[in-house]
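Researcher: We're teaching a course module on how sequence relates to structure. For the next exercise, students receive a sequence and then see the predicted structure as C-alpha cells, so they can try to spot secondary structure elements on their own. Here is the exercise chain.
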Amino acid sequence: MAEIRPITFLCIASYFKGAEFIRQCKRLGCRVILLTKEKLLDAEWPRDAIDEVHAMPDLFNREQVICGVSYLARTYIFDIIVALDDFDVETAATLREHLRLPGMGDTTARYFRDKLAMRMRARELGIRVPEFIHVLNHDKLKEFLHRVPAPWVLKPRSQASAIGIKKIETAEQLWQTVETLGDQQSFNLLEKFVPGDIYHVDSIVSEGKVRFAAMHKYKEPPMSVAHEGGIFASCTLERDASEEPILRSLNDKVITRFGLVQGVTHTEFIKGGDDGEFYFLETAARVGGAHIAELVETASGINLWAEWAKVAFAAKTKLYRLPEFREDYAGIVISLARQEIPDTTSYDDPEIVWRLDKRHHVGLIVRSDSSQRVNALIGSYTERFIKDFHASMPVPDRPID
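Model: And here is the predicted structure for the students to work with:
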C-alpha cells in the first residue's frame, strides 16, 4: 500500500508572526516549510513544528521568490500556500497562480490588499465608503479637491496599518506632497477624512461563509494613535449594541462578495461622527496586528491563528468545525514605553490576564463578563500609561526592515 503523503504547507513570512498557526499545522499532521527573510532566521520560530526553513534576502522581488519556490517544488509537492503577514498576501497569490494551486489568486488578493481596489469593489456592491479618488489624472484630482472639502487622507494602496498615511489640510499641501511622490503617485489614493468611531471585525471564513466574527471598537482611531502619539486601545463591543447587527451584515457582505473562500480576516468600519452612517474602511486576509489575536482569544477562547490553520487544512479534508466559544468581554491597551523594561506590577487588578513582553513597549489585556468593567479599566489604564510609561515616535513612510 502506498504511503499517504502528508499535506504540505508553504508558509511565507516577511515578519516574525504566526507561530501558533505553524504549531497547529503540525498538530494536524502536516508538513510545514517556512520561507522567510535571512534577517529572521534567528527569530524564535517554533522549530519543533517546522520541517524546513528557507530564507531569501527579502520577499518583495516576486520573480526571485517564484524561482526560489519553484526550485523547492522540485522536491516538495506544495498543497497550501499561506501568507502569514499582510505584506506577503500578494506574493502568495502570485505563487498560487504560478504553481496552479487552489486558494486566493491575484484578482481576489487585490480586494484584500489594494486599498483602491477594495474601495472600488465596495462601492460597486453598494457599500458606503468615504469619497475617494485614484491619484492618477491631475484634472480629475483638481475636480475632486474642488468638490470634496478638506481635510483629506492620502493613503498608499498597498501598505499596512498607518504606514505612509498622511492627513492633508489644503490643496497646496496635497500638490506639494504629490510632487514629492514622483513616479509613485499612482500607487496612492486620496480620500475624504471622515471623523468618527472605528470598529474592527475579526472573522473566520470557511467555504465562503463567515463562521465566526468578533466585534471590537477602538478607543481612538488607529491613524490618530499612530500620527498623534496616542495609546492603542480596543474593547469588545457590547453584545446587544445597536451597531452589532449592522456591522455583522456589512462584514458578511464584504467578505462573501469580495470572494474570500477560506481564511481569516480583519475588517474596519467607521461610524461617521457627522451623519451616523457606517463606512467601509479596509479589509485584510490575515490576522489583525497589534495583538488583536490575543484580544479575541481572551474574550472568546478562539485562537485565530490556530483556527486559520484548521480552516486551511479543511480546504483539503472538509473537516472544519468551529469550536465552542465563550462571550466574555476583553480590552487591550498598548503603548511605546520610555523604559526598556516597563514595570507593571502596580497594575494588579484581577481582570488582567495578559501582559506584553517586549522591550520599550507596555501592554495589558483584561477580561470580564461586564462590558462596563472592561471599558472602565481600559480607560483608567490609558490615563495611567500616559503618566507612567508613554513614549512616541513618528510613523515610518515605509515598513521597517
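Model: If you want an answer key for the exercise: DSSP finds twelve helices and 17 strands in the chain. Residues 8-102 form a domain with the Rossmann fold fold (CATH 3.40.50.20).
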